[in-house]
Every structure is written in C-alpha cells, then in structure tokens.
Design a protein that fits this description.
Length: about 725
C-alpha cells in the first residue's frame, strides 16, 4: 500500500485490486451471513488481502468473527446511511492490506461489538480467546455517562495503557480513525474540525511513532483538507498541473535503472508521488516548486549491503547533493524506519531525492508495527523477529522507549485535563535522542532534553536532589541541553530535604520531569531546605525552628545552632543566602507567617530590605558554650580558581579532610579559564570554619575562598 497516495479520500488498496463498493457490501450484509461452511462474500476482499501476506492463514476464525459482528450490528446504520457492518469490514481491510496477522483482524471485526451492541467481553473471550478479548477491550470507549467531559481523554489513557502491553491495540484504533475520517463528510463542519484537531494532535503523532506511515500520511491529508481547505485546494491544483506536465523524474529514474543494471545490481526503481501535506511543506520551504519536488525515487533491493552498493553507484555516476545524505539504516529512527536518503543531480540540473531500502525495510516503513505480525508469544519473545532472518534489520520493540516514558508519567497525571494537555505536548516532540549513562545503560529522551530531564528519567523523584552533571566527562549545569550520543553522569546531593528550583521548569522537555517538579513545588510552597532548590529569593528557610533546636533536634541528626530574637515565640530560620554561623554578627527580618529569617549583617539582602523600609529584628546567638562540638553548622562557600585537571577532586579532598560534609555543590561553566565553585557544607564545629577556608585556599589553582553572599546557583 502506498504511503504517499495523492487522493486523501481514496481507500487504501493494492494496485490492480478493484475498489470496494460499500453499498454492495451493505446489501450483502443485510442478506445475512453465508452458509456455515463457506466464507461470507462480504469479507472476500479481507480474505484475499490477508492471504497475500499469510498464504496459510486459517480463515475460519475470521468467518466466525464476521458472523458475530454482522448479527450483532444488524439493524444499525451509519450516519452515511450504510449498514454499520461496513465500518468494521473497512477497518479490517485496511489492516489486512497492511499485513496484520489473523488475531488483529479478528479483533478488528469485533472492535465495536462490546461498545455498541449487547455482546460482552466474556462472550468474546469465550469464543475467541484472551488475546482477541484484550484487543477489543483496549479499543472500547469509556461511557460519557460515567466520565462526562473526561470520557475522551480517559479513553485515550485506557488505550495507551493497553498499547503498553500490546501495540496491536493502537493499530486497530488508527485504522478505525482512518475509516471514520474518510467518511467524515456526513458530519457537521464544527464536528469535523473537532475530530480533525484531535486526529492531528494525538492520532497522527501516534501513527508516526508506531511507524505506520501508510495511515499517517492519509490521515494528514484528510486533516489538511478539513482544517486548511484553501491551502488544500491550492496544493491540489499544483499536483494536478504537475500530473499533466512532463515528469522530469521519469528520465532520472531511467538513468538510475540503467546505471544499476550496468553495475549488476538487481533493484526496482519506482517514482513515489508526494502526498498533499508533503507537497505543501516543500512549497512552504522552497517557495517556487520544481518538477522533481512532486515526487521521489524509491530504490528497492534485496539485502542491506545492496543499499550501500546502490548508494555508491549513484554517487559515482551522478553528482550527489551531500547535504541531503542521511543513513537511517546504521542509525534507525525510533519508529523502526530504515532507509538511505540522498539526492542526485540529473540532466539539466534537476535534483531528485532518492530513498534506498530493502523490500523488508519498505514493508516496515509503510506499515510499522503492523508489518511485524504478532510480536508476542507465550514466553514473551518477539515472534516476528524470530521468523525473520538475522539480516541486521531492526527487531520489534514491543515497548518503545517513548511509550514507556508516556506510561510512566501518565500515572502521575491523575487529572484528566493535565493528562490531555501533557499528552498533546509530549506527542508534539517528534525526534528522539539516546544518551549513555556511566554505568553502561542508556536513556531515550526527546530532542532538546536537558540534564534535568535525564536526572528524572534515571532517578525518578530522587532527582529532586540533583545539583549538576558531567556531560562527556566535563562538569555541566542542569540546564545543559543534551545531544544524541552524549554520556551523562548526574550528581545528587546527600541532603534528603533538597528539592528542585522553579527555574528547572524552564529547562525540561519531558512530561515526567515537569509533573514531578510541579508536584514538589506545590507541596513545598516555602521552598527547599537545601540552598540549591526551592525559592530563589534571599529568604529561603535554612534551619529548623529554634524551639526544635532547644530540644536537640536539627539537621543530619545533630543540633541546630540556637538563635534568640527580639520577637518572643517567633519561629527562627537561618537564611540560605548567607548561611550564618557563630560568631557571625546577625540580624533578623520578619517574613510571611510571622517567622524571623536571620542573616549575616553584611549580607546584601539586609541592605535591600533596609532600603525597602523593612524593620530589622534584633538577633543574637545563644550561650556561646554551645558554639563548639554539639551542633551541626551549615555554611555556603565560594571558591574562585583557575581551571585545571583534578581541581574538583582536590577541593573535595580538602573539604573531606576538614571533616565537613558536602550538602550541595555547583560548578559554573569556565569563563576565561576561571572557574567558580559553590559548596554548601555541614560542619561539626563552627570553630573549624576559618581552618577549612584556609585549607581550600591552599589547593593549587584556588585564588580565593569566601562566604556566599547570594543564593547558590541551581544549574
């Protein structure tokens, strides 16, 4: 079946097969099923298409499924006036021509019986088995009576979860939507537009991800015609004018055939017309259309090696356009697609795009996961892969990476509106990258993903404590955008109370990360306890209230230094921007909720608040006898240094030697060979702070160590 048909309303069918007359099928359906011993005439086309892919297929189960579907839907009519049974028949024929196996076709014939008739899932299971029952249940809509406005998004959620266990569920749904779109003309214009938009935002991206290009391209053309009728008519006029003109691709195709014959390479060379949306995109990109822009050459060969042999001959005998070369055989797309793409210059300077692939690759390029047959066996192995020779072509991923990520984040999106909005945004990302972890594993992420996305993909909610990363061995901020093939190592804080910063939301592309960060921020409106997360302002809570300190409770199992303020009964917090410790001169300011945030006197935040007219609150450290040996002190230090190898390791060693624990650390990108390190440390004794700072200054390359005067960078 061609994925590039030029008529979006035409049924998909193989060349030479007569067009199906739905009215004739309707009359046959009204006459009832055929005798018990022979196949009903109404599914003769389905049987013919199925046997073309599976010559030994047992058609008895299809006959039984048709009999049940026809008898169940008898008397029901479509809005077009045709008997309803014509719909499951048409959907099943679409799948049969794509190469779907018998179980999928059986479920397709029955896909509306549970939803629209008195047939139950138990009856389907009893007559056709668990697999067919699962597929039928997977595509059965949820009732609006039960779900109201949430019925549509929750139906899609249900189908996607079912697809996670069996990709054939979505194959049936895509074929079902295609036939409904073909017959959408009987609907009101506003309903056509609504269905077309959902198809554009959800079904077409799903068809792309599952590699079912034959369905995707026709759906695109129908949606284009409904939502952009004027652009569609203009594109149609261009295609019609091109069809009546002399096709320059014909001459180039003959030259390619001649070249390959002389080289002894057996190949089939075809001209592939572009579909409507493809022509529209080319016209939008290039402005004036060239004769060769309306189609591409497709070269089909027997083996992988032949693809590269064809490429070599074309680049030798024609002038190649090197910028157009792409190798999707060595590096397949995430949706199973494999081909070599190139472009060559023909006579009189005409440029022709050329696709080179094996026959097997072509089948998968057209039908995606549908072409893989039944990818599931009793032991969970890939039956389609077992049936294919080990020719180096990509095996079926029964749980693609994008689908696993979708199933993970949808569990957190309990609200239907959040799920629906996030699903559309997720599916709008049409490229994937693979990054490598230092433990040898890989992470599949959408293009444009940052280290924040990688952190949540690898660690889940533990990523709340992320403080930075190493990308290809170099320290990087969390906002760093990852490229395909990068190696990433995520750095996490040891402080369990750490949390994400709102700024992280500016850098995320994955729904899982966005949902997790948003949920944490909603649950912690006052920000994180650690200086690298939570609120970005200078009044971020840093310590437990003073009454807890008085009872011996504090950070990391120790005691928080006790502060007395001139506001009796107020909760006291140590500011995260300057991390005061005894014997610093301190001053407090009242914040929301009546708590008092205590800063060092020289903290810039103090000057800003005084300039705003904020009244200072007197603050002082309690009994100096408690300053040493009994409390845990948190302090943020900034080390300014020249860049050199092992600098981070030497600084970390100096900190560890002083018996300080690193709560958080960030390293800013080098600027003019200078590097700025920010460490939040926990000290067992405030008296050891001057010695620690001296030890850090003694590290070769470090030219200054100072107390932080602003919130630590989040990356």
């Amino acid at each position: 079946m061609s994925a590039e048909a030029t008529n979006p309303g035409a049924p998909l069918r193989k060349r030479g097969r007569p067009r199906i007359d739905l009215r004739r099928l309707g009359r046959v359906a009204l006459l009832g099923p055929a005798s018990r011993d022979r196949l009903p005439d109404a599914i003769g086309h389905v049987a013919e298409a199925h046997r073309a892919h599976y010559p030994d297929a047992d058609l008895d189960i299809l006959r039984r499924a048709y009999v049940l579907a026809e008898s169940s839907h008898r008397g029901q009519m479509r809005k077009s006036g045709e008997p309803y049974i014509t719909h499951p028949l048409a959907v099943t024929l679409i799948l049969a021509e794509l190469g779907a196996e018998t179980t999928t076709l059986t479920a397709s014939l029955l896909h509306d019986t549970v939803e629209d008739t008195d047939v139950t899932l138990d009856q389907v299971r009893e007559q056709f088995g668990d697999e067919v029952c699962y597929l039928v249940d997977g595509v059965t809509k949820l009732e609006k009576v039960d779900y109201g406005a949430a019925a549509e998004p929750e139906t899609f959620r249900k189908m996607l979860v079912a697809t996670g266990n069996d990709v054939r569920v979505m194959s049936i749904k895509l074929a079902d939507r295609l036939h409904n779109m073909r017959t959408l003309g009987v609907m009101r214009p506003e309903k056509q537009a609504r269905i077309a938009k959902v198809t554009r935002d959800v079904l077409i991206p799903l068809a792309e991800r599952l590699g079912v290009q034959a369905l995707k391209t026709e759906l695109e053309d129908i949606v284009f015609a409904i939502l952009h009728p004027q652009e569609y008519e203009r594109t149609q006029a261009l295609i019609t004018a091109w069809a009546d003109a002399q096709d320059p691709l014909t001459e180039i195709a003959e030259g390619v055939r001649s070249t390959l014959r002389e080289a002894g390479i057996s190949a089939e060379v075809l001209i592939r017309p572009r579909h409507f949306v493809s022509v529209h995109r080319v016209r939008t990109k290039r402005g004036e259309m060239r004769g060769t822009d309306f189609g591409r050459l497709l070269v089909l060969v027997g083996e992988d090696a032949d693809c590269y042999a064809v490429l070599g001959e074309l680049h030798t005998c024609f002038t190649p356009v090197i910028s157009e070369f792409k190798d999707f055989i060595a590096a397949p797309k995430f949706n199973l697609y494999q081909s070599l793409h190139t472009a060559v210059v023909g006579p009189e300077g005409a440029v022709a795009e050329v696709l080179i692939r094996t026959h097997r690759m072509h089948k998968v390029a057209e039908a995606g996961v549908v072409a893989l047959g039944n990818p599931y066996t009793q032991d969970g192995t890939n039956a389609a892969h077992q049936a294919e020779p080990a020719d180096g072509e990509r095996a079926d991923p029964t749980r693609p990476g994008w689908l696993s990520r979708l199933l993970d984040w949808q569990e957190s999106a309990t609200d239907s509106d959040t799920f629906w909005t996030t699903l559309r945004a997720d599916l709008a990302q049409d490229r994937e990258i693979t990054v490598f972890r230092t433990d040898g594993g890989t992470l599949g992420l959408p293009a444009g993903a940052s280290c924040v996305d990688a952190a949540y993909a690898q660690y889940g909610e533990e990523a709340h404590g992320s403080i930075g990363a190493r990308v290809n061995g170099r320290l990087a901020t969390l906002s760093t955008v990852l490229n395909d093939g990068d190696t990433v190592q995520l750095l996490l804080a040891q402080d369990a109370s750490s949390g994400p910063s709102p700024e992280w939301l500016d850098h995320v592309r994955t729904p899982a990360a966005r949902i997790a960060i948003t949920a944490w921020l909603d649950a912690h409106p006052d920000g994180a306890q650690g200086p690298h997360g939570g609120r970005p302002d200078a009044e971020r809570p840093q310590a437990q209230p003073s009454e807890e300190a008085a009872n011996g409770r504090g950070r990391a199992g120790g005691r928080t230094p006790s502060v007395a303020v001139d506001t009796p009964g107020a909760q006291v917090r140590l500011a995260g921007c300057c991390t005061p410790v005894p014997p610093d001169v301190i001053v407090g300011f009242t914040v929301r909720g009546g708590a008092v945030t205590v800063h060092r006197e020289e903290c810039p935040a103090v000057a800003r608040m005084r300039a705003l007219g904020r009244a200072a609150v007197g603050a002082r450290w309690n009994d100096p006898g408690e300053w040493s040996g009994t409390a845990d002190y948190r302090v943020t230090l900034v080390a300014e240094s020249f860049g050199r190898p092992r600098l981070l390791a030497d600084l970390t060693e100096a900190i560890a030697t002083a018996e300080a624990a690193i709560v958080a650390a960030t390293v800013e990108p080098p600027s003019e060979q200078r590097v700025r390190h920010t460490y939040t440390l926990q000290l067992p004794d405030a008296a050891g702070l001057p010695g620690l700072m001296r030890a850090m200054r003694d590290v070769p390359g470090v030219y200054d160590v100072s107390r932080a005067q602003q919130p630590a960078a989040t990356g």
